[in-house]
Write a structure and sequence with these properties.
With 196 residues, this protein is mostly helical. It is built from 9 helices and no strands. Helix 1 crosses helix 2 and helix 1 crosses helix 4. The longest helix is centred in the N-terminal third of the chain and has 35 residues. The N and C termini lie far apart (69 Å).
């Protein structure tokens, strides 16, 4: 391979990496706007948050449903990747679990708006829900089991019960300024401490 061919290949790889980063920046911005304003937030707000033009968003995501699904998958992956990183870097397994649950709450607040966007595609919504459980239940289990093994949380609950409880506390949070799901989830997580 000539130096020129290597340069062209390297430039193509660099462009793909840049495109991937730009798309992730856009998805992070959309998630932030969705958490603050719901999935019906104007696309121009997302573009402003991401620092891009409207055309860039529509080029990647021709419909709002495309954008919402991409944000959903992006947040699932971010939550899944955060679990092991938090476990490795936190002061304790309980601290890692607590921080991960806060990320999970942000995700859930966004997720609840998904139903209205995908109302016409219940099979698509069901497959996303399965994807969500398959990816996040094992991550939460790893964090919860580590905290239980360290004696930092009670061990008479299942991971599914914990995730379901957090999820139930987040229902309706995106539409009610008087309700702070994160505050109530914090009470739940504090209640995981073993008695005594």
């Amino acid at each position: 391979m000539s130096d020129n061919e290597e340069g062209v290949g390297g430039a193509a790889q660099s462009k793909r990496a840049d495109a991937r980063r730009n798309k992730e920046t856009l998805l992070d911005a959309a998630a932030k706007v969705f958490v603050a304003s719901g999935v019906d937030a104007p696309v121009r707000d997302i573009a402003r948050e991401a620092g891009v033009g409207l055309g860039t968003i529509y080029r990647h995501f021709p419909t709002r449903a495309d954008l919402v699904i991409a944000v959903y998958r992006h947040q699932v992956e971010a939550c899944a990747e955060a679990g092991p990183a938090l476990l490795a870097s936190s002061t304790s397994p309980y601290a890692a679990l607590r921080e991960w649950i806060n990320l999970f709450v942000d995700f859930l607040v966004t997720k609840h708006g998904l139903a209205s966007v995908l109302r016409s595609d219940s099979a698509g919504f069901e497959s996303l829900h399965s994807y969500f459980l398959d990816r996040l239940l094992p991550v939460c289990a790893e964090l919860f089991d580590a905290a239980a093994a360290a004696g930092e949380v009670r061990s008479d609950l299942t991971t599914y019960e914990l995730m379901r409880g957090v999820g139930n506390l987040c229902v309706g949070a995106e539409g009610d300024d008087r309700y702070d799901a994160l505050r109530l989830v914090d009470v739940l997580i504090s209640g995981l401490r073993p008695p005594g």
